[in-house]
## 1
Amino acid sequence: QVQLVESGGGLVQAGGSLRLSCAASGDTSSLRVVGWLRQAPGKVREWIGSILWVGGSTYYLDSVRGRFTISRDTAKNTLFLQMHNLKPDDTAVYYCAASPRASVWDYYGQGTQVTVSS
């Protein structure tokens, strides 16, 4: 089992930046991939990016590539999402997720709200 706890959400003006963190605990040695998803009001949860826990290769949703950067610190078992040039459409609850498998997310955090004002 792995537990995930996000932090760092908040209110920011359009064009601003935020950095989210996700602290992982438990059986982190089992992890293969970690990442971030978000859910805007009235919309389905969408994947926005992933990073391989070992190796660090990253993958992004087209609409955030170049604005968002995912990184991780395996020594501290922490995942990060650095967001720049935020837009009102980025308003959502952001979730970190993790899995020992490549095809499905097994663990989610509780979510952190990001609100971007115009």
## 2
Amino acid sequence: QVQLVESGGGLVQAGGSLRLSCAASGRTFSSYAMGWFRQAPGKEREFVAADSWSFGRTYYADSVKGRFTISRDNAKNTVFLQMNSLKPEDTAVYYCAAANFISARRSAYDYWGQGTQVTVSS
């Protein structure tokens, strides 16, 4: 069982930056692939980024490639999402999730955090 708690959301102007954190419980954090998803009002939850420390892979959605960076600190059981050059269309609730293998599919993830709101003003 893994429990995930996100933090770091907030209100930022377009062009600004935020760093989201996701703290995980459990002693096997490094074995999990970690993903970030987001859900805007009235829209489906969509993939943002994923990281697999075990396989040294990272994936990004095309919409965030070059602006967002996923990273992790296994010693602190934490995964981060650095978001730069934010746009109003990045406004959403951001969720972190854990899976046994890296994937862009929601169904691959077994554990989810409660989400943190990111609002980008124009």
## 3
Amino acid sequence: EVQLQASGGGLVQAGGSLRLSCAASGFTFDDYAIGWFRQAPGKEREGVSCFTSRDERIYYTDSAKGRFTFSSDSAKNTLYLQMNSLKSEDTAVYYCAKYAGSRWYRYGMDYWGKGTQVTVSS
């Protein structure tokens, strides 16, 4: 059974940092693309950062570039999202997701974890 569990969210002041973690199980970590998404109140869910292990390509949404860093530890089946210089507009529920294939740009997501709330106060 595929399971994804995000953690690490919380309340932080603008300019601060948080590190999200996502523990994954039930699939071979290196065989699938994985990613971080977020959904702010009243907005659609958006991709924040995605990674495909086959060619080590990492995607960042424009608003995350230069501030967020994706990383993963295949030995621990865990992915991370280091978020620095947080802004109020980063406030959202953050989710991790597994793609149906090894490349995020070719496949859709097939499993989602429960989200973790990130609140940035201005």
